[in-house]
Specification:
- Pfam families: AA_kinase, ACT_9.
- Its EC number is 2.7.2.4.
- One of its GO terms (biological process) is lysine biosynthetic process via diaminopimelate.
- By secondary structure, the protein is of the alpha/beta class.
- The protein has a domain of about 170 residues: Acetylglutamate kinase-like (Carbamate kinase).
- Helix content is about 35%, strand content about 25%.
- It has an 8-stranded mixed β-sheet, sandwiched between helices. The chain has a 4-stranded mixed β-sheet with strand order 5-4-7-8. Strands 13-18-20-19 form a 4-stranded antiparallel β-sheet, sandwiched between helices.
- The chain is globular and about 80 Å long.
- The two termini are about 40 Å apart.
- Bound molecules: adenosine-5'-diphosphate, aspartic acid (ASP) and magnesium ion.
- The site of magnesium ion (MG) has 4 residues, from loops.
Length: about 425
């Protein structure tokens, strides 16, 4: 008997009827003769609602307590899904991340999975149960505290379970039919990708295409688990994430497309450290302090220092959710580094163009920047990797910029195939 690992996102579990629908799909996989293990997210927007509630009680809640609160969301859905399955005459058992053996480091809010020890899952399977695991959570090896994996983390739970259980593939069920050339909510003409390589999907996810959690793609690549992203609302084949940009093209295959897609991200903020003395070690002091505070930095730009003052400005982007902590951390550093002031801007957006073909086709940046210029979009910062070009723009320009790039690179589909079945996109 094969083992099937599935994941259902919050948008697929929005209410009681949705839960019953998902239960029927899970039971279908069991009826087809498989052992079935399912990772579930919290219902609908309930994680956001819990966060809103926490913010009303405390502007900067203790990270441990926030994790205790947020993991409750997934516990609610795991139990309800198990109940719905039992109502269909099948037996299911639900497990928290900790019970399922999801072992993490001790970083609250963005813990990394270190290991999965699926003993209890295996016993439950052997007893004939369908196994439902609360996604997005684990338990720290060192502190024994409950942790969460970061927003969207149930994808990573699912891939980690698939790896630990030697599944052939991990199925991620969501509210769109697969991975598209852009977010279908912004570009109705987006095209579904039949396949996409791990590297391109990593860049898409890191650039804001939240259809997959970044860590889930890293994990899948490391353990060589293909991910099948598909809709829980349709029976269409989705997108298979597998293979490398360095794999030789199969004999007689068409040339791979140059661009895999356009991603956007509204979740970053920009901090500018104004008037930094232009001398050795200043940038190191600033970024060491931020690293110690566990803050991930994205783009960095340092201006040429003005000759008269010998002072420079350093700007960088980071997740808005880390903005408060970063500003507090830098404020404490002010006297030591001797910079003048700090600026904070949340009204930015990032547009990224991703594709393996960039490596061998010149002129991609020129075309990208021209498309933005023609759409009247001003570029604030630029960064690149081997297969990605990203720009920071005004947040109000994000939709227009994505649509313009999508069209400029001939990604628009002739017939609309990008259906959004549910979810609020929150
Ligand atoms: P779930 O609740 O299933 O985890 P998410 O909201 O986290 O769902 O992810 C699915 C959403 O990702 C889609 O509704 C879509 O708006 C968004 N998305 C962003 N970029 C893409 C893309 N390139 N392809 C598909 N979906 C995308
Ligand atoms: N419920 C969590 C979130 O909303 C985890 C997930 O959905 O994957 O981020
Ligand atoms: Mg998600």
């Amino acid at each position: 008997m094969g083992i099937v690992v599935q994941k259902y996102g919050g948008s697929s579990l929005s209410d009681a009827d949705a839960i019953k629908r998902v239960a029927r799909r899970i039971v279908d996989a069991k009826k087809a003769g498989n052992d079935v293990v399912v990772a579930v997210s919290a219902m609908g927007d309930s994680t956001d609602e819990l966060l809103d509630l926490a913010a009303q009680v405390s502007p900067l809640p203790p990270a441990r307590e926030l994790d205790m609160l947020l993991t409750a969301g997934e516990r609610i859905s795991m139990a309800l899904v198990a109940m719905a399955i039992s109502d269909l005459g099948f037996t299911a058992q639900s497990f928290t991340g900790s019970q399922a053996g999801v072992i993490t480091d001790d970083v609250h809010g963005k813990a990394k999975i270190l290991d999965v020890t699926p003993g209890r899952i295996r016993s439950a399977i052997d007893e004939g149960h369908i196994v439902i695991v609360a996604g997005f959570q684990g338990v720290s090896q060192q502190t024994k505290e409950i942790t969460t994996l970061g927003r969207g983390g149930t994808d990573t739970t699912a891939v980690a379970l698939a790896a630990a259980l030697d599944a052939d593939v991990c199925e991620i069920y969501t509210d769109v039919d697969g991975v598209f050339t852009a977010d279908p909510r912004i570009v109705p003409a987006a095209r579904k990708l039949a396949t996409v390589t791990y590297e391109e999907m990593l860049e898409l996810a890191a650039s804001g295409a939240k259809v997959l959690h970044l860590r889930s793609v890293e994990y899948a690549r490391r353990h060589n688990i293909p991910i099948h992203v598909r809709s829980s609302f349709s029976t269409l084949e989705g997108t298979i994430v597998t293979g490398s940009i360095n794999d030789p093209a199969p004999e007689g295959s068409m040339e791979a497309p140059i661009i895999a897609g356009v991603a956007h991200d509204r979740s970053e903020a920009k901090i500018t450290v104004v008037g930094v003395p232009d001398k050795v070690g200043e940038a190191a002091a600033i970024f060491n302090a931020l690293a110690e505070a566990q803050i991930n930095i994205d783009m960095i730009v340092q201006n040429v220092s003005a000759a008269a003052t010998n002072l420079t400005d350093i700007s960088f982007t980071l997740p808005t959710s880390d903005g408060q902590t970063a500003m507090t951390t830098l404020d404490e550093l002010k006297a030591r580094v001797g910079f003048e002031s700090l600026l904070y801007d949340e009204s930015i957006g990032k547009i990224s163009l991703i594709g393996a073909g960039m490596r061998s086709h010149p002129g991609i940046s020129a075309k990208f920047f021209t498309a933005l210029a023609e759409a009247g979009v001003n570029i604030g910062m630029i960064s690149t990797s081997e297969i990605r070009i990203s720009v920071i723009v005004d947040q109000d320009d994000v939709d227009r910029a994505v649509q313009a790039c999508h069209t400029a690179f001939d990604l628009d589909a002739d017939e609309v195939e990008a259906v959004v079945y549910g979810g609020s996109g929150r």
